[in-house]
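Re: that backbone. Tokens:
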């Protein structure tokens, strides 16, 4: 990955006024705590990461730490030279009166949207100046933030060894007990169906939820769905290598598809394993028992040896998984992975069938379900829900299946079986129903349902209009000063910062439908530093950003700097209750009094879990919003060396056919992408990850410019690998050659399944004898569960003699002969051939036709 923005990477921990605190959770000492209301903080607040050059650019001048009444103008200056690049007048003051306990701050806005020159700047107002920020192309400003947020999920993978040179982490794999997680005994009713208490299930995959080590279906759906939608809406924002995935991560999808899809699949893997045969999903995986509790903050994932349990069942969580599976089916179909798309659609349809069979809210609990993990309970959603606590999630599930399949059955379900979330008239007052104002969160996904429905062909216009309800309200409130800081929310509940960012994404959606959203990105600017406290709530990004998030991995590893990309929950309204009682343990009460305005009730301390914990669902809206920035693009060379050298050459596995029958074979070409100075020789090793699925049969040099010398290479005894050495004896590979085939390796199917096929390079020398540095990429071979059907009266299934993915041997006798031509001619319209176009389309036009007969005849002639 390219070198990170140094403005976002601080190596010196700040201390303010000698304020220090120690975490009371787990007994681990913490770094100095930073109170939110520091008197010396600049009153000029900006997005400390920066602004895209073609987007609105505004700073806030607040009376939080200075008298702003006499300030009426501003300048933007070059951060290095101090030279003024633009100037203007401040807006009229507005008062922050968002809630009953608002800050009361007087706020003025500085609009410098006319600044169109890339650079690093500060905003100066009187004697005050802002923290530095960038102006540039969207990818220049936000590219590192997006990449950090994405790779955060990789770093937080469960059951994975993380050896990350970027952060210095070397942990895991942890919680390998998930391979045999125990089904806990039910508490509320006998809801296990096909399982018994004490059964074990493999539930590996997915991510640690937050500061803890639990894995929850609902938060996985919120995270994975937004990753997938971000890619679906903005594929140009993502690339292979973008997240700089550590080499220790053993995942065959990494390097084979954009990193965002590989990461989403890791979360989907967990969801798929949590689905029961009847379609419902278990609720979570965690420790469970009468004496169990959250582990201490000093405990690393690999230090936890307690059993892990599969717990609970929820119709809301099942519906959320259905929506996520349906998105995955659509996205991976478009990407070109039909097999995985089919799997995801099957999961979605199975889950929806269970929802139809169980029309009432289902909330089943296991014994000791919440003894050592988060509750994530569900409350009614307001008058429109008629007491049906999972109505919003059922709406989302049906809307995504409607959009993915076009089946009107799902529209009928929305129109007839669910409470209606109708259109909104646009008044500034807070809407009466949570259905109108809901951001994307674990507690409601109605906005995702609105979005899916609004983008479905033939959708009901009145229902589709719902997608702009909350965002219209949002934009109006920011523009007229009701939401003076541009938070995007109506109250400061737990994790509200991510809710504001989620609404920024919703405003971006509304722009698709023609809604006026001039303040679309205000909540994103708030999260990145244009805030009441002056903090950027995203770790590693912004000169003053959260440094001490509540997180067991960070604390157990004594990290000097946090993992970058975490969006923490932010200030909280209910630290003290109306009776003057402190609601939460930890250091909050040391710094926040009953008089502290809610928007200022924040302390940057590891122990402040209420305001300073991150989570996979908190951070997902930030990932989505960054991808939505107009003009955000990523290139395939995101993982180039930091020094700007040219892109490395690639040695890649290219399978002639990635899908074979149980008795089929395939050829794997090992190809060098380019040879600027030629090639004199090489040593490479080709391996299959699972020799029970396929084995290596040998190496072939017939069509390659390089040749082996002496004894022919042979595979290992188990067929899992082969090492090949060859030299360019005829000097055929000239300087600048491209797509040089080094060797062809044969593969033989052994049993149904899939296996990664990888290549490693021992050495590769150019014509000057210099060793060439190369990157490598592999491929995946899928062995089908069944052979192709026999053709005509043949007794044997067709075969692919040359491993090119096309089955020329129709009668299955191991040869391409005239009888095969006759069979093809006579039975080309039979289902055995017509339903398997990929296997029999010899001329490559995606059809079965007479020219395929001609091509097969030519193949037979050349074979004879």
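Recovered sequence:
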């Amino acid at each position: 990955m390219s070198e990170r923005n140094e403005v976002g990477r601080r190596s010196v921990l700040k201390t303010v006024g000698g304020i220090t605190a120690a975490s009371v959770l787990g007994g681990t000492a913490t770094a100095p705590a930073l109170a939110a209301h520091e008197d010396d903080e600049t009153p000029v607040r900006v997005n400390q990461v920066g602004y895209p050059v073609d987007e609105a650019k505004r700073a806030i001048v607040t009376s939080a730490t200075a008298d702003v009444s006499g300030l009426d103008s501003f300048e933007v200056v070059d951060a290095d030279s101090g030279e003024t690049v633009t100037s203007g007048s401040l807006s009229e003051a507005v008062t922050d009166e968002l809630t009953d306990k608002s800050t009361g701050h007087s706020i003025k806005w500085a609009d410098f949207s006319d600044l169109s020159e890339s650079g690093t700047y500060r905003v100066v107002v009187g004697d005050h100046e802002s923290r530095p920020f960038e102006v540039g192309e969207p990818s220049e400003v936000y590219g590192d933030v997006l990449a950090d947020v994405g790779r955060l999920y990789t770093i937080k993978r469960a059951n994975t060894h993380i050896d990350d040179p970027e952060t210095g982490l070397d942990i895991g794999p942890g919680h390998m007990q998930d391979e045999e997680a125990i089904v806990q005994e039910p508490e509320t009713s006998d809801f296990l169906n096909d399982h018994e208490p004490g059964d074990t299930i493999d539930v590996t995959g997915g991510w640690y939820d937050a500061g803890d080590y639990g894995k929850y279906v609902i938060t996985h759906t919120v995270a994975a769905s937004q990753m997938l939608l971000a890619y679906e809406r903005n594929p140009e924002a993502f690339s292979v290598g973008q997240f700089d995935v550590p080499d220790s991560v053993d995942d065959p999808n990494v390097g084979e598809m954009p990193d965002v899809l590989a990461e989403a699949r890791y979360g989907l893997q967990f969801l798929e394993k949590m689905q029961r045969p009847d379609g419902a999903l278990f609720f979570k995986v965690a420790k469970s028992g009468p004496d169990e509790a959250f582990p201490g903050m000093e405990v690393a994932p690999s230090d936890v040896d307690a059993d892990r349990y599969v717990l609970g069942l929820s119709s809301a969580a099942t519906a959320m998984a259905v929506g996520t599976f349906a998105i995955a089916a659509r996205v991976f179909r478009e990407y070109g992975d039909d097999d995985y798309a089919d799997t995801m659609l099957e999961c979605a349809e199975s889950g929806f069938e269970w929802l139809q069979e169980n029309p009432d809210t289902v909330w089943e609990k296991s014994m000791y379900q919440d003894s050592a993990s988060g509750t994530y309970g569900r409350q009614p959603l307001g008058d429109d829900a008629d007491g049906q606590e999972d109505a919003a999630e059922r709406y989302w599930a049906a809307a995504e299946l409607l959009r993915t399949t076009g089946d009107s059955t799902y529209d009928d379900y929305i129109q007839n079986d669910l409470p209606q979330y109708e259109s909104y008239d646009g008044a500034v007052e807070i809407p009466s129903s949570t259905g109108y104002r809901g951001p994307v969160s674990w507690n409601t996904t109605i906005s995702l349902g609105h979005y899916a429905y609004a983008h479905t062909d033939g959708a009901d216009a009145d229902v589709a209009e719902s997608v702009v309800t909350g965002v219209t309200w949002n934009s109006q409130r920011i523009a007229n000063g009701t939401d003076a800081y541009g938070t995007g929310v109506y109250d400061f509940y737990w994790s509200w910062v991510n809710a504001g960012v989620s609404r920024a994404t919703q405003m971006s959606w509304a722009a698709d439908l023609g809604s006026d959203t001039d303040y679309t990105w205000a909540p994103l600017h708030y999260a990145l530093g244009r805030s009441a406290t002056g903090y950027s709530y995203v770790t590693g990004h912004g000169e003053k950003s959260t440094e001490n998030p509540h997180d067991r991995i960070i604390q157990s590893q004594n990290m000097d700097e946090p993992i970058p990309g975490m969006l923490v929950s932010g200030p909280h309204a209910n630290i003290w209750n109306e009776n003057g009682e402190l609601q939460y343990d930890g250091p909050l009460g040391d710094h926040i009094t009953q008089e502290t305005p809610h928007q200022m009730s924040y302390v940057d301390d590891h122990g402040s879990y209420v305001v300073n914990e991150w989570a996979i669902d908190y951070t997902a809206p930030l990932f989505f919003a960054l991808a939505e920035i107009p003009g955000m693009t990523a290139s395939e060379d995101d993982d180039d060396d930091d020094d700007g050298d040219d892109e490395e050459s690639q040695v890649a596995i290219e399978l002639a056919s990635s899908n074979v029958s149980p008795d089929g074979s395939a050829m794997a070409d090992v190809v060098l992408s380019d040879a600027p100075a030629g090639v004199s020789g090489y040593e490479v090793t080709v391996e299959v990850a699972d020799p029970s699925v396929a084995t290596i049969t040998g190496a072939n040099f017939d069509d390659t410019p390089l040749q082996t010398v002496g004894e022919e290479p042979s595979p290992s005894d188990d067929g899992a690998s082969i090492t090949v050495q060859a030299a360019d004896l005829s000097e055929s590979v000239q300087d600048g050659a491209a797509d040089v085939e080094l060797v062809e390796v044969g593969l033989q199917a052994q049993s149904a399944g899939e296996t990664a096929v990888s290549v490693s390079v021992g050495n590769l020398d150019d014509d000057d004898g210099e060793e060439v540095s190369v990157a490598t990429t592999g491929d995946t071979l899928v062995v089908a569960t069944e052979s192709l059907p026999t053709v005509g009266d043949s007794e044997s299934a067709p075969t692919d003699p040359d491993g090119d993915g096309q089955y020329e041997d129709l009668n299955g006798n191991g040869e391409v002969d005239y009888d095969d031509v006759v069979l093809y001619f006579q039975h080309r319209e039979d289902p055995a051939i017509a339903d398997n176009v990929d296997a029999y389309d010899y001329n490559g036009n995606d059809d079965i036709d007479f020219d395929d007969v001609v091509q097969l005849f030519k193949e037979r002639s050349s074979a004879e």
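The first helix runs from residue 138 to 155. Residues 323 and 397 are 4 Å apart (CA to CA).
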